[in-house]
Design brief:
367 residues; alpha+beta; Heat Shock Protein 90; five-stranded mixed sheet; two-stranded antiparallel sheet; 10 helices; 14% strand
């Protein structure tokens, strides 16, 4: 019993920002409806203050019942649990008890002298002989009051459950997207390691000093990579840092065969994109464009603002020989999947090869 009370108190104290906003709008409207409903039985302007205070008191009772008693019951017994027929039956019974409880509170409030104008007994009327009789059946009035509160609470419960369901669905979708993004990011690591260690292996036999420098660069690259790997999205600045370390390693191996041009609009440095997007495309440019050629090749990386709501990231590389590497374009497929998960339909992807130049353009939403 004590554990249940503690749960109810904890649930009552804790609520989301959205719930507080909605409640702060609904309660004044509820209070206003009560005030308007009391107007027909107020025959004295001096009772306006009484009606206002009664409306505030009834609103407080409504808030106590819905927020503390009903909301706690829903969170403990229905939310995030399988729904069954007996749970629905228990809920309806619980709503009926709350309705009776609410009407009992209203009855006793009406017995207070300050609020006696709202007492149900005021519905007694005198006949021509001076006798009093009840205008309506007392049972009918109480039954109607209980049913009104019952359906009001039922509507509140249905709306609240539907709202929580939508919030949980969005949360699950977000978590699923995050998991998919993380999984797709993890798929890049073996490919990257294979290329990096192959570069080091080739340098060991050619120049040990350069091999040592490459290991240093690789350790720095992994430090940055692991730091960024915690998140599934990174800023353009972080992406450039990771890619620059990788290109520095490849520059040692390729020497003059690799020429690099980077043009970045400074106001785009904080723009976000899926982690390792730029590195993946730069790897592909090295693997399929620069490595297969004996002649010098180039990679161009540019980022520019093309509209108030969009910016363009472009990676171009020379293609002067047929690549002997695997051409499944798994890296690009993963990049497009991650872009779709992160931006939905708000991004555009264009790739083309013309006049010995292969380019990938990504038009992304500007934050």
């Amino acid at each position: 019993m004590n554990r249940t009370v503690k749960k109810i108190i904890a649930i009552s104290i804790k609520s989301s920002k959205q719930y507080k906003i909605v409640t702060s709008v609904i309660l004044p409207l509820y209070c206003l409806v009560i005030i308007l409903g009391l107007q027909p039985i107020i025959n004295d302007d001096n009772l306006q203050l009484n009606a206002f205070l009664l409306a505030l008191l009834d609103t407080a009772v409504f808030f106590f019942i819905t927020h503390t008693m009903l909301r706690s019951y829903l969170k403990i017994n229905l939310i995030n649990t399988p729904v069954s027929l007996h749970k629905i039956t228990y809920l309806l019974g619980y709503l009926l008890l709350l309705s009776i409880f609410g009407n009992l509170l209203s009855y006793f409030i009406g017995k207070i002298e300050f609020f006696e104008f709202s007492d149900v007994m005021s519905l007694y009327v005198a006949n021509d002989l001076g006798e009093t009789k009840f205008e309506f059946s007392l049972f009918y009035i109480y039954l109607s009051a209980v049913l009104n509160v019952f359906f009001l609470l039922l509507g509140w419960a249905i709306i609240y459950l539907f709202w929580i369901q939508q919030i949980n669905r969005k949360k699950q979708q977000k978590e699923m997207h995050q998991a998919q993004l993380q999984q797709l990011t993890n798929q890049l690591n073996p490919h990257f390691l294979f290329n990096a260690f192959n570069s080091i292996r080739a340098l060991i036999y050619e120049d040990r000093d350069k091999a040592a420098d490459t290991v240093t660069l690789l350790s720095e690259l992994f430090r940055t990579h692991l730091k960024a790997h915690v998140n599934t999205k990174s800023s353009l600045t972080d992406e450039l840092e990771v890619s620059s370390n990788y290109l520095a390693i490849e520059k040692i191996r390729l020497e003059d065969r690799l020429q690099l041009n980077i043009t970045i609009d400074p106001q785009l440095n904080a723009q976000t994109l899926p982690t390792l997007t730029l590195l993946t495309l730069v790897e592909n440019a090295i693997k399929h464009g620069i490595s297969p050629n004996r002649e010098a090749g180039y990679i161009d990386i540019s980022a520019s603002l093309i509209a108030k709501k969009n910016w363009l990231l472009k990676i171009s590389n020379s293609v002067n020989a047929i690549s002997t590497e695997d051409g499944t374009r798994t890296g690009q497929k993963n990049v497009k999947k991650r872009l779709r998960l992160m931006f939905g339909e708000q991004y555009q992807w264009r790739q083309m090869q013309k006049n010995g130049v292969y380019s990938v353009e990504m038009e992304l939403p500007y934050d």
